[in-house]
Write a structure and sequence with these properties.
Layout (H helix, E strand, L loop, with lengths): L1 H9 L1 E7 L6 H11 L3 E7 L5 H7 L3 E5 L5 H15 L4 E4 L11 H9 L5 E5 L9 H18 L11 E4 H6 L9 H11 L4 E5 L6 H6 L3 H17 L1
Parallel strand pairs: 1-2, 1-4, 2-3, 5-7
Antiparallel strand pairs: 4-6, 5-6
Helix pairs in contact: 6-8, 6-10
Length: about 230
């Protein structure tokens, strides 16, 4: 059993987009290292704090943007880096703010290693215990907009914990630079007819992660950008 666990972890790359995350990044990386993950890629998205220094101290693969490009830009760089710099079979995106439980990584990668899915999304809304009401409402609104634009309904379109098979990752041609990338990924899944599965995950909410996460204003901005891109083709 231990050898099987080591095998799937060695075949998994973790991509962490990070912008001014000196407060939480060290704890996140320490947890991943303790769990046995070695293929860890941190994308410092133009941070002005010690994000890069902390990443380097944990001996991970560090990719840096000179300027802040946004979540979409960081994910695009990180996924491309995982494909080029590792031989991982599965690529996982993981938030830098401490919101995700390391133990939930196994839930999102298992269906891919079992051959049951090309992409797996860890859904906080399949069991939203502890999620603030306004955040639930905002996420459901974005789920609805994502469905109307791309014809693919998921319970948590904005989740940062996702897993992609290597083949699926190669098909992702991300164009969005900012937060709307999460909805765009759902559209790319539908466009490329990738097999999608959702699994319930636990979100770890702290005062810090709530500040770093989506706000109502961000939600409206995402909707505006998605509608603009849809209308302009």
């Amino acid at each position: 059993m231990a050898s099987l666990e080591r095998e799937w972890k060695s075949r998994t790359a973790i991509v962490i987009p990070a912008y001014n995350e000196e407060r939480a990044l060290g704890s996140v990386l320490a947890g991943l290292k303790r769990a046995g993950f070695r293929n860890i890629i941190v994308v410092d998205d133009g941070s002005t704090d010690r994000t890069s220094d902390i990443a380097e101290s944990y001996e991970v693969i560090l990719l840096r943007h000179i300027i802040n490009r946004g979540l979409g830009g960081a994910l695009s760089t990180g996924i491309a880096g995982a494909l080029k710099l590792t031989d991982a079979s599965v690529i996982v995106t993981f938030d830098a703010d401490g919101q995700h439980a390391v133990s939930d990584i196994e839930k999102v990668v298992k269906p891919i290693f079992m051959g049951d899915a090309d992409v797996v999304i860890g859904s906080r809304l399949m069991n939203p215990e502890g999620m603030p009401l306004l955040r639930r409402i905002g996420n459901w609104e974005l789920n609805l907009i994502t469905f109307l634009l791309f014809g693919k309904f998921v319970t948590d379109s904005q989740s940062g914990l996702r897993a992609f098979s290597r083949r699926a990752a190669l098909k992702l041609k991300i164009r969005s630079n900012r937060m709307e990338v999460s909805s765009e990924i759902i559209g790319l899944i539908a466009q490329n007819k990738l097999r999608l599965k959702e699994v319930p995950i636990k979100a770890i909410y702290t005062e810090y992660s709530l500040k770093k996460g989506q706000s109502i204003f961000n939600g409206f901005r995402i909707i505006f950008k998605l509608l603009t891109k849809w209308l302009t083709g």
